[in-house]
Amino acid sequence: MTWIKKHLSTFLLIFLILAFALIGFQLRKTEDVESASIAEEITPSVVFEAGPLQVTSTVVNTWIMIVIIGGLSYFVGRSFKVHPGFVQNAIEWLREAVNGIITANIDHEDTSLFLPLVISLAVFIGCANLLGLLPVLDSPTQDINTPLAMALVVFLSVPYFGIRTRGLGKYLKHYVEPIFLMLPIEIASEIARTFSLTFRLFGNIIGEEIIIAILFVIAPFVVPVPMMLFSIFTGVLQAYIFTLLTCVYIGGAVKAHQSTN
Amino acid sequence: MDWTTLPWDKIFVIVTVLIAGPGIIIGITVPAIGQAFVAASGLKAISRQPEAGDKINSIVLLSLAMLESLAIYILAVILILVFANPMQSYILGG
Prior knowledge:
The complex is a heterodimer. By secondary structure, chain A is mainly alpha-helical. Chain A is 74% helix and 3% strand. Chain A has ten helices and two strands; from the N terminus they run αααββααααααα. In chain A, helix 9 packs antiparallel against helix 10. Chain A starts with a helix and ends with a helix. Chain B is mostly helical. Chain B contains three helices and no strands. Chain B has helices at 8-48, 53-83, 88-92. The interface between A and B is medium-sized, with 18 and 15 residues.
């Protein structure tokens, strides 16, 4: 019996995955699997239209996710204790991990300046990537507009933090820092890395979704489960890489402040 | 030979598939070799200087992410070719 107790969490995980697979199988069986093509499987469906805007299912999933994460953070944040429980422990661990990434990449003494943005990005992207594992729900990041919005937030926050920590003149001066010829290269790299961030996140998630969709069409029962397990790893890794790159880009705008001093 | 009577829709699908398959093979193999170099060099550096492990680790992950984005670009191009080709209406005339 101790052997079972020791591996209880593993059994529970396998049971949960099988249950999800079964639920997904049942839900997909009610639709006409033969006619559902893979292209329809991965494109988000339009839920309703508000004027000229088409509100897709990924946007609705984002709203649901925001409500759940916001409510959870609000209620957990109101009841912080000295001796942390399970949920508080997990949140403190997450905060420490993100704080470690910030201190490793940004040379600034006040990490609480960057923490709200970076931890929000990390939690949002991580949850958005993992949302696609639930049956019938589309992951918000498999629509290219969500990663693009995230990358635009990073694109705008880099000059914000640069100007805030160094002042406008010193920040603009770092574009022409070694010689004047660096100016177009710096501007081009700022634009290119925004699209690179977008496509890295989008491509990883859409690739996983396509492989899972293909496996579901071929053999809908247990065959997609290893790929879904792997997509947990990919989703968390992509959230980590997005956070790391955000910190590196912000650090590049902030760092020269230290060297000029 | 009458070019207008050829089955252009079938030729279009065949050419797309013939391009997409080798394209994704090349586009994944070359970044994979680069990633292997980065991972091997990072491992060597950590085994030589284990106390610098944290710093090397983050740089290695950063380089792997940069190299991975190349493969992702290929994937995006292939997906556009297969699922949403912008030339489709031009060639098929619809």
